[in-house]
Every structure is written in C-alpha cells, then in structure tokens.
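ESCALATION

Customer reports they have been waiting on this structure for their group meeting. Please prioritize. Original submission:
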Amino acid sequence: MILGPNPILICSDAPMKIIHDTDPGSYETMTTESLRRSFLVADLFATNQVALAYWMSERTVVGSVVPTDSPLSLPCPPELAASYFAERREIGIINIGGAGRIEVDGRVFDLGKLDCLYVGRGSRDVVFASANPSRPAQFYLVSHPGHAAYPSILATPSEAEKAELGTQAEANQRTIHRYIHLGGIKSCQLVMGFTALKPGSVWNTMPPHTHLRRNEVYLYFDLPSDGAVFHFMGRPEATRSIVVHDRCVVLAPPWSVHCAAGTANYSFIWAMGGENQVFADMDAAPLRRLR
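Update from on-call: job pushed to the front of the queue and completed.
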C-alpha cells in the first residue's frame, strides 16, 4: 500500500522511506516540490498501520503507530540491519490521540493524550494498542542510535518540566513541556517534548536560532482542519517556507532555522538528536539577520 507523493508506509519487512541529507547550497536552488520531498513527512498516522521514515541526519527515524481493533508491533525494517528495532536505538513516543497502551518486553504502560514514553536501547518487543478502536491512540515516535541502555519510563504532562515563554503583544505566548532532557527522563542523545501555543498566539521559536550540533524534528498537531502553519527554514540569510497542515512533520537540519506562524494557535512536538543534550545550546539568528 502506498500513500501520497512521499510513500513511507511499512508493513512487516517492507522498506522504509530513506530521506537523505541536503546541504545549504543545494537547498537554496530547490523548488517548492523538492523542498517538500526533502524536508516534509506528510504520510503519517494511517489507521491500523505502522509508518516509518529514515532521515540520514543523525540517523533519525520518525514514525507513527495507529492501532484499532488489533495491537501493532513495532517492526524492524531491513534498513536497520538489526535483530529488532531497538537493538541499538532509543525511542521517544508521545500519544496525540485517544487512550492507548504500549507493552515493552511484557511491561505495560498506559498513555493518555500527550503522555510520553521513553523506550531504552535493548527493548526487544514493543507492542501498541488502543483502548477504544473508534477513537484510537495515535502514537508518534522519534528514534536515534543509543550508546547505552536507560530504563523505559512514562511521564505525563503534569510531570514535564514547564517553561512559559513569549508575550501576548508579540503573539508568541507558549508553554514548553520538556520530557526527555538532562533534567528529566534520561537518554543517550534524544531530547523531546512539546510546545502548546496559547489562544491568540501564532508564532513559535521566535526569535529563531540554529544549533549546529543537533538536528530537530517538528510534528505540528491540533491544527483546525482548515488551518495551516507556515514553517520557515534555511540559513538565516536565505530562508524559505513550507506550508504544513495537521499532523505533518518538518525535518530541520543543523544549519537551518526552524520557526513558524499559523493561522491560529496550535501545538507541536519537538525532538532533537546530536552531539549534546543541552537545551540552551542554540546559535541565535537575530531577526535583522533574516533574509
């Protein structure tokens, strides 16, 4: 089964979509369609399917699992050349749908909306299920290679480290929820959480920045059906935009800014992987520098 112009759907041993790195020079010559092929993942959250894509930057895997009547196991695509998915990897999972359950090597974790589960390296069997098939869980995952094994841990929004940023006057009031980070759930390189914009605010990550030592992945969600987000990326001196809709993922390479404005408030899950896990390790891109 193939979905849309950027097929990533996998079942059992079918191949994963491979997304290669793009250098800043090549990026500046891209058309709208080539930008979307290289930096946008729009085919996630197919009902009763596991969908995965492999981005060469930091060997990042992004994906979704939407179980309905029957549980779904996390497969091990042949591109990983592993005995099981997490043999050499760690995984961060956030549920953006109805209530669900994840079983990790026989240990059961119940996840409500916006709960986060960290799955440590060496976890052999990862199985996903929904509490109510008519309102299924929608599990979003990001995975990076892991050099050590940390325990699998569940956290709820009330347990996340929170930060209030922005102002109403600048239309960027937002709450950042940090789950997997140096002061929270321990991991090898994965840093993960979500940001919720307040009503009346539309800008995220303003003023913008890059971080040469890490990539970043954004999943935009809770957008109205007729809404959109205009995601800005590229070198600060040569920005481009990608129009995204609900449940779309944008891939931000280390040399790229990653900020956006929406037609209304929205939320997004951010995940980073790379050389360090210091949340504040950012290279500022002042607004006067943007072109």
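Sent to customer with the following note: The chain is about 5% helix and 40% strand.
Escalation resolved.
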